[in-house]
Amino acid sequence: MDKEQDLQGRVALVTGASRGIGKAVAANLLARGASVTITARKKEPLDAAAEELRAEVPGARILTIAGNAGDDDSRRETVDRTVAELGSLDILINNTGINPVYGSLMDADLDGVRKIFEVNVVASLAYIQQAHRAWMGEHGGAVVNLASVAGIRSTGVIAAYGASKAALIRLTEELAWQLGPSIRVNAVAPGVVKTKFAEALVAGGEEAAAAGYPMKRLGTPEDVAELVGFLVSDASSWITGETVRVDGGLLATGSL
Fold it and tell me: Is 13 in a helix, a strand, or coil?
């Protein structure tokens, strides 16, 4: 089947999709033929993203649901409305992530650390639970969790965030084992990608930030989206429990 239509008839839910990686993933899935629910906290940027996606992919079937990924009622509404209005839930992309804590863990605000784990790890698991109950448990599906190279190797700067992504990687492996064979669960681990979320990491300039990458450039949201699209397609039907790096070769250098 042509890659551009290899997700025809499937329904995806992408969290944190009003901009950046989440929006690029939604665009990729729509271009492959999927119907997509996009969700994020604020309605206005979410609606703006949907307009842009419809212009980019004419005829795209998009449902927008504003809500907080950290709130159980919001997650339930998002999943239930997706199934009710789009007809199924075959693909779940856990993209929402936060990082309000920088620097030494000895000085870290513990409420901030708790919030990071609540959103980056617990909410991802909760979304998978909801998707399993509403559709995937009976019909199967594919899940991709957005991790980070910071979850594979220590940074010293975004340590709490990295610890949460390491937990998400382990969660991915556990769920792949528990939910197979009908549900595949994988993760992707990007390096620094040019998004608003990563602005603090490239404060010294993009060229300087990219100097340590073998590919000599930072990633784009589309670099990540293409990998996610592959991992939820039938082309990856024997891949589960994996965390695939998309980092321009950064970890291959032995540093981060």
Answer: strand
Which candidate in 102, 127, 161, 213 is catalytic? 161
Cα 119 from Cα 107, distance rounded (Å) = 21
Angle at 121 between CA 11 and CA 135, to 5 degrees: 30
Place of tokens 């589960």: 240
Cis peptide before 190 (omega within 30 of 0): no
Separation CA 14–CA 44 (nearest Å): 17
pLDDT tens column, 62-108: 999 999 999 999 999 999 999 999 999 999 999 999 999 999 999 99
Q: Of the candidates 250, 99, 128, which has an alpha carbon nearest to the alpha carbon of residue 186?
A: 128
Order the strands of the 11-15 sheet from edge to edge. 62-66, 35-40, 11-15, 91-94, 141-146, 183-190, 243-246
Per-residue pLDDT of 165-214, as tens digits, reads: 999 999 999 999 999 999 999 999 999 999 876 666 665 678 888 989 99
Q: Enter the DSSP assignment of 59.
A: T
Closest CA to 198 of 98, 48, 77: 98
List strand residue ranges (DSSP E) for the chain, in order.
Answer: 11-15, 35-40, 62-66, 91-94, 141-146, 183-190, 243-246
Q: How would you classify residue 92: left for phi > 0, otherwise alpha for psi between -120 and 50, otherwise beta?
A: beta
Per-residue DSSP letters for 160-204? HHHHHHHHHHHHHHHHHHHHTTTEEEEEEEE--BSSGGGGGGGTT
Is the separation of the CB atoms in 90 and 10 below 8 Å? yes
Angle at 9 between CA 3 and CA 11, to 5 degrees: 100
Is 213 catalytic? The answer is no
